[in-house]
TrEMBL record:
InterPro entries with a match to the protein in the record: FAD-bind_Monooxygenase_sf (IPR051209), FAD/NAD-bd_sf (IPR036188)
The organism of origin for this protein: Nocardia callitridis
Protein name: NAD(P)/FAD-dependent oxidoreductase
Length: 506
């Protein structure tokens, strides 16, 4: 950790790490709770997180806009059922402006690690470079699960002499006109990128490891009448949001667990494939061999038609290595490319931590998470008091909006922070046995889900531990976070003089 020599920064109430959806949501709810002594530490130069970084052609959300927004910050102006990245980023910027968050931001503050000072009951937050460190009574880790883009571990990646672009670090200055382009990956980003690239590039080769289940995405323009209704009658927009919510909740019966409805989801996917792909061999290459839901469902109407364009080709041979001029596959062919687009390769914290975190008695969270991450209700970890997570372990939805889960986490942690500050607590630390009991139940329930049914996905660690997904309905997840049960925590109060020694609350 770094610090400016000779300075002793004052201790603030809350440090929020990350200026994306989660960090901004937490900041808004803190202000609404009457907590104003907080900072938002953002390593970039602007707000937005994932939606600031992902500006690739065709970038959009595959969850309806009414649901991919906070209930406490409704937006009647959504232009389509599913919004593009520019519009989502605009929503984030509007929230920040409307709730007056600008004074709380500290841009260019790349957090290098946090250490809990048990004697003082605070977190010391290290900042890269000569910037002064931050001291905070509580910390919200809101860096996001897809904050760190990384190229996949493919042999020869440094040998390739052409142009490399990661989907989350798009190079808008690169001209694809007349170029031979390779796309590695066929996930949620790839199915949005490929249709755009075939319109520009001379040729596009899509390298597929495993095909995914593709479902139709009907993206309708929002009429002026509907917008006006939602402006004038907020209850109408809330009703629309609820309808989308419960519609997605019903999908859980088909994708979270194997059931007769799983077959229905698969029939819809097969029908989409038959309708859009006429060639039997290509259909076979695009047919998944795992149950729907085991990997992320792909929502698109454009991907299959793009693959059948004259300048596009699907490659299903495994990649052996990258060479100076292209990609070598297992059958011995070198596919030459002027540019390789990597639509895969996020460093998701299924194990380890996004930054070094040192808790009580020198405990290192990365070491404790080395075999797979875990937490109490996804939000807190025993031994790391006054630290709260957003989108923590086992909070991933397979069927509903991530923001529904995130909003529940934010309301819970804001309540916990309010308790720490209002009761002048030294520490609020989850009891180990309560955490263990919670996670044992989560892992037991996960054994019955499609995610743990045998396919390989980014949800799982190398040895098959699922640290990512929540095995249930969004309703269940939200309900477990409605109440802060202090019996589940070791609650330690500070003395009146605020000295380091503390006394437990009976």
């Amino acid at each position: 950790m770094s610090n400016t020599a000779g300075t002793h920064p004052r201790t603030i109430d809350v440090a929020i790490i990350g200026g994306g959806f989660a960090g901004i949501g937490a900041a808004i709810r803190l202000k609404q709770r009457g907590i104003h002594d907080f900072v938002i530490l953002e390593r970039g130069t602007a707000i937005g997180g994932t939606w600031r970084d992902n500006t690739y052609p065709g970038a959009a959300c595959d969850i309806p806009s009414r649901l991919y927004s906070y209930s406490f910050a409704p937006n009647p102006e959504w232009s389509h059922t599913y919004s593009g990245s520019d519009e989502i980023l605009g929503y984030i910027q509007t929230m920040s402006a409307e709730f007056g968050l600008a004074p709380h931001f500290r841009f260019g503050h790349n957090v290098t690690g946090i250490v809990f000072d048990e004697g003082a009951g605070r977190w010391d937050v290290g900042i890269e470079g000569d910037t002064e460190n931050v001291r905070a009574r509580t910390v919200v880790l809101a860096s996001g699960p897809l904050a760190n883009a990384g190229f996949p571990n493919i042999p020869g990646i440094d040998d390739y002499a052409g142009h490399k672009i990661h989907s989350a670090r798009w190079d808008h200055d690169y001209d694809f006109t007349g170029k031979k382009v390779a796309v590695i990956g066929t996930g949620a980003s790839a199915v949005q990128i490929v249709p755009e690239l075939v319109e520009r590039a001379a040729s596009v080769k899509v390298f597929q490891r495993t095909p995914g289940w593709v479902l139709p995405r009907v993206n309708r323009r929002t009429s002026p009448v509907t917008k006006e209704l939602f402006r004038r009658v907020p209850a109408a927009e809330r009703l629309s949001r609820q309808a989308w919510f419960y519609g997605h909740e019903s999908v859980a019966l088909g994708v979270v667990w194997k059931s007769p409805l799983t077959r229905v989801v698969e029939l819809v996917g097969r029908a989409q494939l038959r309708r859009q792909v006429k060639d039997p061999w290509l259909r076979r290459q695009l047919t998944p061999e795992f149950r729907a839901g085991c990997k992320r469902l792909l929502m698109t109407d454009d991907y299959y038609p793009a693959l059948q364009r004259d300048n596009c080709k699907l490659v299903t041979w495994p990649i052996v290595r990258l060479a100076e001029r292209g990609i070598r596959t297992a059958e011995g062919v070198e596919h030459q490319a002027d540019c390789i687009v990597f639509a895969t390769g996020f460093e998701v914290s299924k194990a380890g931590t996004p930054i070094p975190i040192v808790g009580r008695d020198g405990r290192v969270l990365a070491q404790e998470w080395s075999r797979g991450a875990y937490a109490y209700k996804s939000v807190a970890v025993s031994g790391y008091p006054n630290l709260f997570l957003t989108f923590g372990p086992n909070s991933g939805p397979g069927h509903n909006s991530a923001l529904v889960y995130m909003e529940a986490q934010i309301d819970y942690l804001v309540g916990a922070i309010d308790t720490v500050l209002r009761e002048d607590l030294h520490m609020l630390d989850v009891r180990q046995e309560r955490q263990d009991r919670h996670n044992a139940a989560i892992q037991r329930r996960l054994t019955a889900t499609t995610w743990n049914s045998g396919c390989r996905s980014w949800y799982l660690t190398e040895d098959g531990f699922n640290a990512t997904m929540y095995p249930g309905f969004a309703t269940q997840y939200v309900n477990q976070l409605r109440t802060l049960e202090l019996d589940d925590y070791e609650v330690v109060a500070r003395r009146a003089d605020h000295e380091a020694d503390a006394i437990p609350i009976a």
